[in-house]
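Quick entry between incubations.
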Amino acid sequence: MMQDLLHSEPGLLNFGIVFAGAVLLLFVILGFVTYGILAERKVLGFMQSRHGPNQVGGPWGLLQTVADVLKLLLKEDTIPKLADRPIYIIAPVIAFAPSFMVMAVVPLTDKLQFADVGVGLLYYIAVTGLTTIGMLMGGWASNNKFALLGGMRAAAQMISYEIPLVMSVVGIVLLTGSMNLNDIVAAQENLWYIIMQPIAFIVFFIAATAELNRVPFDLAEAENELIAGFHVEYSGFRWAMFMLAEYVYMFAMASLITVLFLGGWLPLFSFLDFIPGAVWFALKFSAVIWVLIWFRATFPRMRPDQLMEMCWKVLLPIAIANIFLTAIVKEILNLF
Amino acid sequence: MLRTEEMLLNVGPQHPSTHGVFRLVLKIDGEIIKEAKPVIGYLHRGTEKLAEDLQYTQIIPYTDRMDYVSAMTNNYVICHAVETMMDIKVPERAEYLRVLAMELGRYCSHMLWWGTFLLDFGATTPLLYAFREREMALNLLNELSGARITFNYMRVGGVKWDAPEGWIEKVKEFVPYAREQLKGYSEFASGNEIFQSRMKGIGKFSKEDALNYSISGPSLRSTGVKWDLRKNEPYSIYDRFDFDIVTQEAGDVWSRYLVRLGEVEQSLRIIEQACEQFPSEGDIMAKVPKIIKPPKGEAFVRIESPRGEIGCYIASEGKKEPYRLKFRRPSFYNLQILPKLLEGESISNLIAILGAVDIILGEVDG
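Done. Structure below.
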C-alpha cells in the first residue's frame, strides 16, 4: 500500500497520507520503547530476584516509563559552559534520526512496509553507521574527558563491528540473490536462514549486540569505568534522545534479525498460517529482545582491546569463511 | 599537524568504581595509564586522635566506622588489645559468640566484595545475589547485636549481648544454604569466559613485592604465601577449629578472586564447627572493673580481618583513656602498591585492579 503511494503522483493528499503513516510508525516505535524499557526492567528484576517497577500505574508499573519520560522533559536543560554549543545540541538529533530512518525499509508484514527499497539491507547498514557520528560528536562537544574517551570507544567499536555485521549477511544475499528484505523473507518459505546460515547468525547476533552498544559490549557508556561515557554531560531531554536512539535501534535490530534469520512474518509451520503474520513477527521479535535482555542480566562487560581482538581476529575471519562456504555449497547444489 | 599529548584524568573522588571517596590522578595516553597518583584522606575522621580523649569502651563504636563492612573484627581488635594489657580471661561462651560474629562478618564482607567487584565489570546480577545472602547474615548479626552494620557488640572482657533463643539453630540452618548458593556463584560467574579473561594475568605482583609492600590478607595469600593469623598466631579460640589457609600462586586479580571465594567457604566451615561446639551455658562477660584502666605500658595485637592484618597498638599511662592508640589498617597498606600496578595498564584494567584490592575507604583514611 505504501509502495503505491510512493510511486503515485506527488500531491498534498498523498504526502499527507505518507506523513501520517510515518507519524503512526513513530508512535508504534515510541510505544515499543515505552514498554520495551518496562519489559527490560521487569525481566531484569525477575532474573535478579527482585520486583522491578511496581508502583506507578498499577501493579506492573505500567506507567513507570511514562513518568520517567515526563521527568526527563521537565528537567533543567544544562549545557556545559565550555561545550561546543552547536555540536552539543545537534549530536542527540544526529544519533536519533538514523535509528528511525532505518525503520522505513524493515518489512513488519508482507503488507506493512514503508519503502520496498531494492537494496534495503544495504540501506539499513549504511544508515545505522551515521549514529556513530552523533555519539562521537556528543562525546567531543561535551568538553569532558570521560565523554571524549567514551566517544572514541564508541567510534572504534561501532566502525569495527560494522564489518563483520556486513560480512555475515553476505551469505544470505548470496543465497537469496537479492538485497531486498522482502525477497529475503520470501526465500525463507521452506527453511529459515538461522538453520541454513547458523554461522552467519551467530556472527551477526554478536556484531548486532555490539552495534547496539549493549552488554557485554556497552563500552562506550561503561558506567563503572567512564561514569556514563559519551553522554555524561547530557541531561534531560537531550539525554533522553540518546536513550531513545538506543532503544529504537534495539527495535530495528531485532526486526532485522527476525527478517534475516527467523523468517520475518512467516509462520513456524505452514499449517499455522491462519495466525496473522504480524503476530508471528511480534513473537519472533520479542524472542530476540528477550535474548538481548538476558545478555544484559548475565554478562559482564568486555575490555576494549579484547573487543577489538574478537572483532578482527575472530568474527571477521569466520564471516569471510562463511561467505566462501556458502558460495561453494551454492555452486555445488547448482550442479545438480 | 597531528600530535598527541598526555591527558590528566581525575578518577574520583566521586566515581562509581572507586568504592568510596578515593581519588586517582591519572596521566593517560589514549586509554593507557602512564602514571597514577592516588590521593586519599577524604574520609579521614581522626579516629586515633579522638580515641585519646575517650574511655576504652567508648572507642569501640568508633572502630565500627573504620572498616564499616566488617565491623566485628575491628571491635575485636581493640577489645583484644585491652584484654591483653589487663590479662583478662574471656569466658568461653563469649569467645564462641565472638568467633561466630567475626566469621559471619567475614562472610558479609567477602560477599559484598564479590558483588561490587563483579559490578565493576558491568555485571549487575551478582551484586543482587550477593546482597541477598549478605542480608541474611546481617539479619543474624542484627538479632545478636541489635544493629546491621555498626554493631558495637564486643566489650572488654566479653560481649554485650548473649545469643537470643534459637539463634544458634538459625546460624546452623544458614550455613548449608550459603554453601549451596556459593556453589551456584562459581557456576554462573567464576566460570564465565569474559570474567576470566578480564581477571587473569592482570595486576600481577610477586611474593617478594607483596612482602616488601607489607601487603596482607587475601592479596598476600594470592601470591602463594601461606600466612593467616588465625592459623599462624591463633588468637581467641581459632586453634580449636579445623580449616585451611586458601592460597593461590599466580598473584593476579583472578587468584585474589579465588582466594576470597575460598575463604568464604572456610568461614562457613568455622561457623559450622563453632555452632557444634557452642557451650550451652556460661557467662558472656568476664569480671572487669567498671572503669577500665590498663596498667602503664604498651601492647600491640594483630588479627586477621577480611582485608588483611588489622593491628591495634595501645600506649597506656594507667589512665582511663589511652595515651596513644594506633590501628594498623590493612586497606591502607594493601593500597600502597597501586601506582606500581597501574603503570601501563588500561582504564578498564584499573577498575579490575582497584576492585581486587578490596579497599574500604573508612579504613584507608582512618
